[in-house]
Structure to design on (744 residues):
């Protein structure tokens, strides 16, 4: 039996591809679909998460096909749209992405791409109808198209870069802290002498994507980076390291040691860097200790987010901050195989602390899980705010979609990310405790009653 | 509305089976009997109504829709033999676009143009191409369009296969208000086994056969003149066959929900006939009833 999904946080494959393209400097998407696809993307994703990409949102190029293109084929409309886009916007790459209607009809998008290339324009394409999957599959399809087709656009051989590591699996905006997280992981790689290839975000252009085959290692942050890493291993023999989640705090040290081992880097240098980073984080934790005990910081928590966030944040919250995991909900629809991997990587939390792990993307179902779990702190998306209010507990927005919270460069990955999370949580819990004290005359009344009796 | 609407009939069958010829002759016979008839060709080949119109060109609904934003009934229809209003839905060139969606769009436009309200037909015949390969080709038998569907088949296995597919589609849509099956029209009857084979298939699928159209030179002759048999050779025996079919469609409103055979059943059934046909072709002498 099919179920409806209430308030899904996972948009379609086309949108996943657009998130990738818009996060690459100099890349311009050309949507081949009906009009609503591009606008829905803006309403559903960009506007909720600040947006701010160079080319995207409502003015995105789209063939806006109508019924006659469905009946008679829309390839010529795409040809015209590509031509017009090239006239209006100068770009390093024109990236055609398709929607459901044009894929159902079977428009010959590769032929239009070829036509563009024959006229010396840098054009690639990806088939991204929504029925191929959600935003995560869209990310994978776009990354695959870039890896496979960009080498065809390259005219001259480039010198091979040394010490490059590619980062995969962080989906722009679907992880609201994507830019900061990428930068934090990049900073750590630099710390042990590597050249991180972030690929997406500020200052990331096609040059980085052309360097992808040069990399010595692919670092896979979430399950959504695995197919790209597998493709690169197959094509270029590049090895990969799978993190299975955001490296927050101590997990960053494990990541650095694994990378260092794999690439045979100087272990001493790696350890020096880890120590410096750790001691700074420890300093912050020490400075926070007094507040921690005064505010009764330790409590049960419910965490709702994508697999990489749930794995990364819950580990830090539990092992470093001493919180108690109660309800963990993973919302990014992992495959059966990925689910069992996630089960085993979270088994220590589940078995040791009696936490419950769920896979769900239905708003109402997730709220019910959080409600019945009864945590003293809720971390999730804006959609979980209501249930946190019901429980009367502090609530921190950490996953998509955000609302009423601006995130530009904040990240929770790495050691500095751990400090940022500590700051956010600390402020939240302190202000919540203060609000309850001031705005709860009921508790004062109760005290009086006790006094009189 | 329903009394003005007239009887809407969809005629299906494998391509090249003589579907358009049969439909056009039924339209002509109905028109000859004094009814107002619309025949709508639902096929990108757009040659359903050719022999009703003396072979003249007729712009298709979809071509017209593509070229002009405002379409009038006059632009997309022609009056053929006996006043039959001829319309061709048209469609994309082979290998491009979506013909199924085309049928959908064309029928929507005809409804928007109020063709049926204005022309007030007694009969509307939809001549639908080939096999029911996807949802678009099932549009005429969905709720609110045709009331009854007929399938034209010869004794070729592929034609039977296509007929069985139509039965599957009717089986799916009829319970939710879609068309039911009026019956099977057996066409191109020329071998001794043709009629018993189609009869046997009809028994298997629990559907009636409403007429047998023998293969006849008069049909080919008339088509070469760009005419239906009813128009070109009204006194011929073949014309009588088509008139009988038209009369059946007019007078007998019975309809059924067929019981299509599944893949293995259909193959098994075909194999039994393969043996019998081989016996006929190789000259095994046996009684007629056993065939």
């Amino acid at each position: 039996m099919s179920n409806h999904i209430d308030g899904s946080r996972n948009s379609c494959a086309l949108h996943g591809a657009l998130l990738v393209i818009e996060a690459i400097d100099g890349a311009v998407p050309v949507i081949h679909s009906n009009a609503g696809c591009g606008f829905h993307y803006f309403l559903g994703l960009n506007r909720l998460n600040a947006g701010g990409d160079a080319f995207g949102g409502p003015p995105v190029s789209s063939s806006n096909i109508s019924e006659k293109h469905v009946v008679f084929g829309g390839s010529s409309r795409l040809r015209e749209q590509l031509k017009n886009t090239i006239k209006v916007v100068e770009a390093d790459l024109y990236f055609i992405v398709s929607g459901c209607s044009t894929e159902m009809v079977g428009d010959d998008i590769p032929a239009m791409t070829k036509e563009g290339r024959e006229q010396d324009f840098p054009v690639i394409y990806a088939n991204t109808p929504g029925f191929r999957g959600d935003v995560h599959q869209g990310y994978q399809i776009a990354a695959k198209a870039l890896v496979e087709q960009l080498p065809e656009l390259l005219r001259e051989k480039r010198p091979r870069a040394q010490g490059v590591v590619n980062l995969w699996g962080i989906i722009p905006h679907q992880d609201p802290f994507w830019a900061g997280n990428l930068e934090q992981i990049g900073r750590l790689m630099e710390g042990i002498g590597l050249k991180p290839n972030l690929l997406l975000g500020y200052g990331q252009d096609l040059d980085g994507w052309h360097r992808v085959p040069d990399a010595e290692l692919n670092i896979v942050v979430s399950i959504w980076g695995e197919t790209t890493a597998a493709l690169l291993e197959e094509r270029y023999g590049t090895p990969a390291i799978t993190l299975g989640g955001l490296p927050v705090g101590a997990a960053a040290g494990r990541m650095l040691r694994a990378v260092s081992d794999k690439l045979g880097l100087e272990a001493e240098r790696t350890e020096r860097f880890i120590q410096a980073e750790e001691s700074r984080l420890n300093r912050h934790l020490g400075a926070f200790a007094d507040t921690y005990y005064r505010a009764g910081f330790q409590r049960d928590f419910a965490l709702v987010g994508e697999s990489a966030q749930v794995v990364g944040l819950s580990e830090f919250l539990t092992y470093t901050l001493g919180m108690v995991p109660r309800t963990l909900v993973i919302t990014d629809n992992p495959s059966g195989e990925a689910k069992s991997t996630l089960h085993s990587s979270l088994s220590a939390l589940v078995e040791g602390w009696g936490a419950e792990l769920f896979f769900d993307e239905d708003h109402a179902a997730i709220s019910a899980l959080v409600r019945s779990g009864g945590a003293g702190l809720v971390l999730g998306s804006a959609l979980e705010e209501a249930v946190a209010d019901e429980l009367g507990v502090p609530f921190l927005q950490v996953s998509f979609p955000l609302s009423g919270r601006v995130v530009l460069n904040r990240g929770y990955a790495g050691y500095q990310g751990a400090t940022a999370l500590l700051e956010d949580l600390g402020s939240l819990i302190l202000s919540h405790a203060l609000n309850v004290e001031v705005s709860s005359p009921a508790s004062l009344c109760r005290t009086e009653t006790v006094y009189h009796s | 509305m329903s009394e003005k609407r007239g009887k809407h009939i969809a005629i299906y069958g494998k391509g090249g089976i003589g579907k358009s010829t049969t439909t056009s002759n039924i339209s002509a016979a109905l028109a000859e009997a004094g009814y107002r008839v619309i025949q709508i060709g639902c096929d990108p080949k757009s040659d359903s109504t050719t022999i009703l119109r003396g072979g003249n060109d007729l712009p298709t609904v979809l071509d017209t829709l593509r070229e002009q934003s405002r379409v009038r009934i006059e632009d997309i229809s022609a009056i053929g033999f006996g006043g039959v209003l001829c319309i061709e839905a048209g469609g994309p060139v082979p290998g491009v676009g979506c013909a199924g969606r085309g049928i959908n769009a064309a029928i929507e436009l005809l409804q928007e143009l109020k063709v049926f309200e204005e022309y007030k037909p007694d009969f509307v015949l939809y001549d639908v191409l080939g096999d029911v390969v996807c949802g678009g080709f099932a549009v005429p038998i969905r709720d609110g369009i045709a009331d009854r569907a007929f399938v034209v088949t010869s004794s070729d296995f592929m034609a039977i296969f296509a007929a069985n597919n139509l039965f599957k589609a009717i089986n799916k849509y009829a319970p939710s208000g879609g068309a039911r099956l009026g019956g099977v029209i057996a066409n191109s009857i020329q071998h001794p086994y043709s009629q018993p084979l189609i009869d046997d298939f009809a028994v298997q699928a629990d559907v009636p056969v409403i007429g047998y159209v023998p293969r006849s030179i008069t049909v080919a002759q008339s088509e070469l003149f760009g005419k239906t048999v009813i128009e070109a050779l009204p006194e011929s025996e073949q014309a009588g066959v088509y008139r009988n079919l038209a009369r059946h469609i007019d007078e007998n409103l019975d309809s059924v929900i067929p019981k299509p055979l599944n893949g293995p059943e259909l193959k098994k059934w075909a194999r039994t006939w393969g043996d019998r046909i081989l016996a006929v072709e190789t000259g095994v002498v046996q009684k007629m009833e056993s065939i």
About this structure: The two ends of chain A are 59 Å apart (CA to CA).
